[in-house]
Protein 1
Amino acid sequence: MVGKHKIIGKPERRVDAWGKVTGKAKYAEDYTVGHQLWGKVLRSKYPHAKILSIDTSKASELLGVEAVLTAREIPGSNVFGIVVKNQQILADERVRFLGDGVALVAAKSKEIADHALALIDVQYELLPVVSDPEEALRPGAPLIHGDTNEFVHHKVRKGDVAKGFAEADFTIERKFKTQFVEHAYIEPEAVLAEPAEQGGVKITGSVQNLFSSRRSVAEALGISLNRVQIIQSTLGGSFGGKDEVMTSMCCRAALLAGRTGKPVKMVNTREESMLESYKRHPYVLYYKWGAKKDGTITAMEIRVVADGGAYASMSPFVTWRSVVQATGPYYCENVKTDVYAAYTNNNYTGAMRGFGSPQVDFAIESMMDELAEAVGVTPLEIRMKNGFEGGAVTATGQKLAHTVSLKEVLSKAAQELGFEEKWRRYRDAKAVAKRRGVGLACSYRGVSLGAEGVDAAQTTVSVQTDGSVIVSSGVTDMGQGAQTQMAQITAEVLGISVDRIQFLNTNTSGVADSGPTVASRGTVMGGLAAKNAAEKVRATLLEVGSELTGTPVDALDLADNYLVNERTNERLASFGELTAACFNKGRPMIGLGWHKAPRTSWHEEEGKGDAYFTFVYGANAAEVEVDTETGRVNVIDFVSVHDVGKAINRAMVTGQMCGGVAMGLGYGLLEEFEIEAGIPKQLNFDEYLIPTSMDVPRIKTVIVENEDPAGPFGAKSVGEPTNELAAPAIVNAIYNATGKRVYEIPANLERVFLGHKLTRHDKRGSEQKNAFDAVMVESCKVRGGSE
Amino acid sequence: MRPFEYYSPRTLSEACNLLAEGEPDSKILAGGTDVLVEMRKSSAWSSKAIVDITRIPSLRGIGESGDWIIIKPLTTHTEVLHSDLVRTHAPLLQTAVSTIGSPQIRNRGTVGGNIMNAAACADTVPPLIALDAEIMLKSTSGERVIALSEFFVKPYVTVARRDEILVEVRFPKLPANARSSFVKLGRRNALSIARLSVAAVVCKDEAGVVTDARIVPGAAFPRWQRVPEAEKLLIGQKPSKELLVEGGKKVSEVMISFTGRRWSTEYKEPVIAVLVRRALEACE
């Protein structure tokens, strides 16, 4: 089938496009049923405090209030967590960050529920706050869980760094810092929980990872998994963000529905969403490289501290990807990498598009440019010298057996932007106020979960007697286009047009637990499961076709909605006639597709392993204009090149590439969710700045296709790699323009102009309560401008 | 959102009566781009009534009267942006409104609202002060006219009484020999609040000697004002590159004399000087 694809690789229209552009798509908040109550959460008043008492009596007496719940009234388990179970549906004895829930209300209207929240009296005893991850690791720091705040230490060991540094002609040692970032999905968290027959619950909501949410709901209610049904509504964006925060909301709504016997809807406002939801991890990164005069890297010693916030969440996995990828796609015989994660009283940090790579990529690619400068070659030359080629052995000791296209993507990115010529010209240009610069960044990235955990998924293909097809999958679509990809793969195998396929939103009771839709695994895992399912159906259909026509199976094909004689191209039956015949003969109309990823391995103690079953390669090139008199940076041109194995849908791959760059541009230049002493400073988009369409330049996208047998039709990942390179490419471009390097992102006005961040010197510490009130009032009243 | 009373007067006198005799704790609604945002924040919102003046037709429009341009308060930023009168007689105001928010916000937000909300970053205010604008306030007890430069006390606080409605903004047309400019520094290219801004007007005689100079920084001083110390440097001179640099530095000095050295001074001190210089260069 390879080489004559009819649907794979084509810019097919997305299966969800019509619903979304006509407003008919139903998002979670659009689900409304009779007798529905509104659920609301009373959240903590302090970032760290002991709960002395909760008095809900006044709230319960309010007319229209149907239930008020605290941790005590939870029938099952109050704790959840995918790796470490230490997050609570409602805080019982202690609050650990400002987004913690303390009590729940269900009432006949949102307004009554809000009013009831104000009537709940919670008495707290303040505890000392720790808001900086490095402080949290020092002896004597306030403890968040157990007897140490260090809850992750991943390492990678290769060779001998002491020997490596001894062989070096020089060393480069730098410190980098990255910030909290908000996912900024357009649709805030929302669910509708309805009591179901036989004591169960049905939840419709904006959930990314339905199976892990389902597990926690079942445990909270103390019922079996088969009584909890979670149906995914159309998602208005997730970017990794609708996992634990949605688990928590699902549990809360289900508890209120269970208590009242009525449907309960919960919808976060943007402020509630930003206050409660988890963020991208801020990292402090210490990089020390030893190198020879010719640019050979002899040693890399890397220490990283990640701010995990109040709960473990995905930190153990996020930081594991960081430790595996911390050296970048570069040869080095001697590596010692340590990545730690610390608990603090900040928003907890978890999955976000990139998942531990954007932070290390910023450091690696900045270091690479510094190395180029020290050696006296161009950024492209230093990467071509040190970059991986086929058969390379990574820092974790994994031999790369697939097509290693790093140098191909790098040269294409450089060529499209005219990088080498511009880089020299801008470096030598006259020092005028507005200066241009170009920057380069590249990476390799492990596909799917890797040695993080079990990696398998299910997709079902069911043909109907009229030739239409239903596809459903445990891999979810949150806007990234998973449904369209799987529909295209199914259509290709069955020789039908995509418009014959109806894709069902994921329903936990309709498909098997397929793990989370994360790690850019949708196309590979869901896609291979879809291919597997469709191939089973195809085999049946061809057998039936052979019986019908007397033509041998190996002379038959399915193409253009017909059963055809492959040799004569004669159309023997329509696809609908064929499926009807299949039904009449009592043959299976359904294919259950399953795919389990190839083996990966990891030795935590030795810091080695075959971390991922395959990798993808990407390169970005940015051109900026820096106003050196104000620090203002404009990105004026951009090239994004990614080897995706095979583009199932070119339009969607291009969309992912452009979206990833826009998001990465925000990460590099604008976005910063600031938390001071546990108190977030921006709770809406008036102050938390994401790029507008006016800030995103023309983006030239280049799709490279080195087909990989690990994925369907050779396809690999694209969602996350597109998001990890824009920031370092832009920061490197700023250096080319100004000769000054930014070591902390975002590279905003002050950091570019002054070289450091401006911090308002608020009172903090002992006057915690006053500081809290002051900041809350301030963030409500004063918007920008005055200071 | 808390419950509130909603009034929609159809005439100016009806609106004045409502403000004078109705709920004392009421807020005027014009474009709503600030009011509607703040209403959602229960902690900062205390008003018990909304007086929606958008259905009073006499409060709309841009006109001229002799040497004066008159802008009624409900005029949207988009209307200012497309006004030939403003383009001809006050181009810096047009530049300023073009930088406000996004097309959606410019379609809703009004000149009157921008003034009365009195945010330190209000983009129409520096150019209007540079144009020597006056405003007229009306209540049941009569009308009064105030120079815009005298109107503001500090961010979000003005001398307007709670029963007064802004009914007119007016300013003299710029003379034929005037050049004007508005320079704004924001963090992004749209939906961007001014980090700092500068409005400037410079008039020269036929020999190229400055006869009038007006410089009004935005988001820099505790309240908006012209900077006569810097303006004086220019008057009577033929501007050289060095003089414009000096003008910028002078504004920076005056700013610090008002604000003292604060956490943000390290950035604002050099950058406001640059923006003033650029605003003056744009008037060359």
Note: The first strand of chain B starts at residue 5 and ends at 7.
Protein 2
Amino acid sequence: MKPILERLKNDEVFVSDGAIGTLLLERGLNEGEPPEAFNISHPEIIEEIAHLYLEAGADIIQTNTFGASPLKLSHYSLQDRTEEINRKAVQCVRNAVKDSVYISASCGPTNRLLKPYGDIDPEDIYEAFERQIRAQIEAGVDIVCIETMTDLKETILAVKAAKTVSTKIPVIATMTFENTKRGFYTIMGTNIEKAVEGLELAGADIIGSNCGNGIEIMIKIAKFFKKYTNLPVIIQSNAGIPEVHYGKITYPDTPDFMAEKAKELIASGVSIIGGCCGTTPEHIKAIRKLVDSLMFTI
Amino acid sequence: MDILNKISEYLQDGNIEMVSELTKQAIKEKIPPKEILDNGLIDGMNVIGEKFKIHEIFIPDVLLAAKSMYAGMNELKPLLIKAGIPAIGKIVIGTIQGDLHDIGKNLVAIMLKGAGFEVIDLGNNVPPEKFIETAKRENADVIGMSALLTTTMTAMKKVIDLLKEQGLSNKIKVIIGGAPTSEEFARQIGADAYCYDAASAVESVKVLIANKFKR
């Protein structure tokens, strides 16, 4: 497969996958159990989900490793199995997709706060990401994806850790913004301009936003990213803001709605479009169809 | 500038050492501890809460201000206890079972402490029974629950049901919050208040406790 960065230079548009968590819950993951443990306990289910997104038409499939940092796994006393969990997660997706699409290794925040406002040293955050990402890269991922970040310092540490492990593997870095009256900010106070500046300096190859917002707000966020950066931009939005009806949680944005809005993302110059919380293979299928129709007319 | 104003301003800047030093100095100057608390520390936290609400400052600023407040409180607490000045209310707080997210809950705890409440923080992944046991033992006025995951928020109802079963609904009030929760959800599960953010949690708790003593 041609490296994704080369293809991005030719203005190709890619579709990435959707949420994993809900699909895992439907397949027997208990509430409060770490989804990452399924990589070793139920590899067949992880393969099945990767296959569902492959069939839906995703060009990029993510690994089930969002919380597979030793700092997060330690909540379940699984930190000593960091390498095993990350390696197995990559192998499951590889088994399902072979070499037909790109495999992107998900890395979420450590949920620890850096000093002085928190209690952890930057070295410890860096080390945790390096350990997780090394296992992923050694297992053969094509891309590393650092996502749902809110602290720019932590994100930069993660990007640098990825780049230390390998200079060749492209790094995606995406942050989660709140739509405030004073503009878009992460909860830690980073705006889009500062995010772009920091992520570019750290060496990220593809930058953008995921989670926190539905696709309509993401169109605005994408436009800011395009204003400040020449790097390829990725957007992975939620299927809207979750609604609760008598204890049942639903996400309002339908596959057709997301596909319709994805058109505006592409028009704004976004290179990779995928889903976050609440999105399903159906959403990805609809976005795939839209992207194909646009590419065909061009 | 008056020393209490200075305490408030250094607290807003997150200057832990200066807040600690000035609190000691204020005590030495024989300013009543309650006054140092209200017009120094709590005053500073009020400003922080307001600025945080309108996104003028963010979580790191709040956390540093809180650390400064705790530094000041460390100096004041023995004096407040000696003077027999009680906290204005007691809250048991935690993130619900199955959920490990605690940044939001920590902010609420900080704001409540900053407003003068006594807060018992049970941390994250708290089983429903533990909320009840602690609230009973500590004679708390309010239980505060947080969830970030749509998969865990439904467990909040268990706490409210348990309170009803044990006939404690009138004695212990329940506030809930967290990204996936809403006013509607709070009503459905029978919570006494929904808190959109940390600042509104303080308002809700004040109202709930005031109503409690009215009866």
Note: The mean pLDDT of chain A is 95.
